[in-house]
């Protein structure tokens, strides 16, 4: 029996721009499960990022509930919401958005010092471990301007998990990366997931989506289908036949949804 980590009830979001209403989320009922790597696909402009922002408390829904560990985060005050985002959630975006005058090491460490109940030396240890695990040890003292795109994004992944979040929200985390760097970031997200962090990732890319064990298809304001896959086996990451087989399953499923 899978444990729900995050769920929505009748989640709706309407934007009003220039007096015109856009109903982007239309009464979404969704369950996300602890330990899953869930991917969200769907047409451009359909509202995938809006869904991710409402689920993670970065944006407020127009109506409906977003329940995380028993709490409706759509109704929380700013103080409690900020605490939740700092203590329990991690975020990775298409652009790394690092602080330009801090080193890569400091970019990872700084949010770590906000972790409740952890000493400075424990944060340092967590940062050291992550910097090594993300392959950043050689460039830890570099500023973001001195780092490559892949290094910056690996740093953004490390920063997202330094506080040991329950769930990482990733919005097109490989969208700005070349193939080699994309694979590295996806491998890192997979490794974090196998270490117990739930992942929710929005992506346009089928190859990236099949890193998940569950793929949701979002269109016309709601979830229109879902595909269950066996958890990604890292032993086969470099095996083209393994990747193609998962991709073929996802493509057939997407075709059945008229993607
Ligand atoms: N702040 C805003 N104000 C008004 N409309 C918005 C706002 N943010 C998003 N929208 C509109 O909401 C719709 C959904 O946008 P969203 O970015 O969630 O889609 P998406 O599926 O993530 O798109 P893409 O795949 O292209 O990144 C779009 O039509 C967009 O123009």
Summary keywords:
259 residues, alpha/beta, 6-stranded mixed sheet, 4-stranded antiparallel sheet, 10 strands, globular, binds adenosine-5'-triphosphate, MacB-like_ATP-bd
How would you describe what is shown here?
The structure is a single chain. The protein starts with a strand and ends with a helix. It is globular and about 45 Å long. It has a 6-stranded mixed sheet, sandwiched between helices. A 4-stranded antiparallel sheet has the order 2-1-4-5, with helices on one face. It has helices at residues 48-55, 78-87, 104-112, 120-133, 149-161, 179-194, 206-209, 240-256; strands spanning 4-17, 20-33, 37-41, 63-68, 71-72, 89-92, 167-171, 198-202, 214-219, 222-228. It has 8 helices and 10 strands. A hairpin with a 2-residue loop joins strand 9 (214-219) and strand 10 (222-228). With 259 residues, it is α/β, with parallel strands linked by helices. Residues 15, 17, 22, 24, 42, 44-50 line the site of adenosine-5'-triphosphate (ATP). InterPro entries: AAA+_ATPase (IPR003593), ABC_transporter-like_ATP-bd (IPR003439), ABC_transpr_LolD-like (IPR015854), MacB-like_ATP-bd (IPR017911), P-loop_NTPase (IPR027417). Keywords: ATP-binding, Nucleotide-binding, Transport.
């Amino acid at each position: 029996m899978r444990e729900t980590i995050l769920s929505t009830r009748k989640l709706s979001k309407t934007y009003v721009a220039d007096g015109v209403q856009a109903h982007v989320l239309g009464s979404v009922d969704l369950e996300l499960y602890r330990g899953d790597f869930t991917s969200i696909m769907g047409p451009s402009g359909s509202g995938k990022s809006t869904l991710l922002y409402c689920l993670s408390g970065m944006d407020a829904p127009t109506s409906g509930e977003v329940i995380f560990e028993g709490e409706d985060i759509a109704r929380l005050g700013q103080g409690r919401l900020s605490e939740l985002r700092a203590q329990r959630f991690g975020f990775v975006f298409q652009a790394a958005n690092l602080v330009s005058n801090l080193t890569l090491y400091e970019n990872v460490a700084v949010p770590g010092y906000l972790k409740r109940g952890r000493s400075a030396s424990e944060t340092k240890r967590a940062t050291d471990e992550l910097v090594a695990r993300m392959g950043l040890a050689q460039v830890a003292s570099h500023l973001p301007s001195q780092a490559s795109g892949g290094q910056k994004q690996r740093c953004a992944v490390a920063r997202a998990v330094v506080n040991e979040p329950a769930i990482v929200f990733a919005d097109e985390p490989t969208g700005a990366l070349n193939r080699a760097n994309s694979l590295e970031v996806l491998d890192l997200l997979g490794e974090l997931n196998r270490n117990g962090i739930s992942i929710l990732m929005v992506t346009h890319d089928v190859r990236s989506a099949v890193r998940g064990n569950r793929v949701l298809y979002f269109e016309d304001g709601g979830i229109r289908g879902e595909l269950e896959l066996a958890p990604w086996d890292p032993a086969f990451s470099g095996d083209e036949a393994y990747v193609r087989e998962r991709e073929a399953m996802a493509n057939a499923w997407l075709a059945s949804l008229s993607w």
